[in-house]
Amino acid sequence: MNVRPISGASVGGRSRGRDRRLALIVGGMLLAVTACGGGDNPGSGSDAKAGGDKGATAAAESKQSEAVVTIAPKTGAKDVDTSGALKVTAAKGKLTEVTVKDAKGRKIDGAISADGAGWTPATHLAASTAYQVHAVAKDSAGRTAAEDSAFTTLSPQNTFIGNFTPEDGSTVGVGMPFSVRFTRGITKPADVEKAIRITTVPAVEVEGHWFGNDRLDFRPEKYWKAGTKVKVELNLDGVEGRKGVYGKQSKTLSFTIGRDQVTVVDAKKHTMQVTREGKVVKTVPVTTGKPGYATWNGQMVISEKFTVTRMNGDTVGYDGEYDIKDVPHAMRLTNSGTFVHGNYWGGDAFGNYNASHGCIGLRDVRGGYDGSVPAAWFFNQSMVGDVVVVKNSTDPVVDPSNGLNGWNISWADWKK
């Protein structure tokens, strides 16, 4: 009897073969998985260490700056004062940037203190103006903190402006100061003076001097150099000139100094010597103030020119003494009524004796039509800002505030 092999044994043999193959496959897969893991324990080795450092750096960078920036006034504030209210400070750090600008992008200059703890504006703010402030500070680790604010300044109920001379774009003589007369008396002169900036080409030191509380004149130590370009910035908008009264003027203007002409009148010799660039160009006979009405001594500046004008003694305290309706070629030297002018009624006084009520008279014709007479020549050769110096008169030196005549104050006293 034939016996068949046990099928299970045969199957079992085939299974063992397959198992060996499966073991090899699974082993290979495990090896591959292990190889992808780098063969090291998690968290060990150079790659893991680098990952740990990056994590620490990110954590450090995400830590908030210790610096604290404070801006006053705070966002939304209204009716803010134009001076003293704007302050920027930093605690536990130092300011690195402060920007203040209005809605038109115009910036307010300022300075960060040496210790970085505060910022101070260089000037006042304009009135009725919206401002934005952006400030940045760094702590000791170099981390930054920033703060912003937006506010609006007050709208003043009482204001002032400055009426000035010379006019924008004019050409004037070497003695012309820049003079401002304010429409309200000023009780904070330093703040107002700081709001007026004068620059020149070529550069020269220019200082201001107050006459009373409503007039401020600026000039250099000596007469201007011919050809000097003068630029004036009137930044009066928002400056508090007196309690509750604010400037409302913001203007930039310029003027040019013309040729150098200085005229010297000798009241004793009855002569006028005209110099141009330091050289004598002509000597003219004149008449000055008679006894009791002597002409002021000193340096005087031509402030106005009139081809013809009326002169009435009643306006200067000489009631009823004269009223001449057609004085030709007149140029003002003082506010009180001193002129250098043409004289058609003086007879033989010119060069011989003094006959006027304090003015400087030059021979002229009625109507001023003759361009060859001394008065017409001098009028045509002169401009506003030219200097006329009177000497050897019996009168005192003219008051510096009487006209544009601050040259009669020493430079040391001018700057006080």
From TrEMBL:
Region spans: Disordered: 42-66
Active site residues per record: 341 (proton donor/acceptor), 359 (nucleophile)
Xref: InterPro entries: Big_10 (IPR041280), LD-transpeptidase (IPR050979), LD_TPept_cat_dom (IPR005490), Transpep_catalytic_dom (IPR038063)
Keywords linked to the UniProt accession: Acyltransferase, Cell shape, Cell wall biogenesis/degradation, Lipoprotein, Peptidoglycan synthesis, Transferase
Top-level taxon: Bacteria
Pathway where this protein functions: Cell wall biogenesis; peptidoglycan biosynthesis
Domain L,D-TPase catalytic span(s) in chain numbering: 261-391
Compositionally biased spans, kind Low complexity: 43-60
Keyword Transmembrane helix: no
PANTHER family, sorted: L,D-TRANSPEPTIDASE, L,D-TRANSPEPTIDASE YCIB-RELATED
Protein name in the entry: Lipoprotein-anchoring transpeptidase ErfK/SrfK
Organism per entry: Streptomyces achromogenes
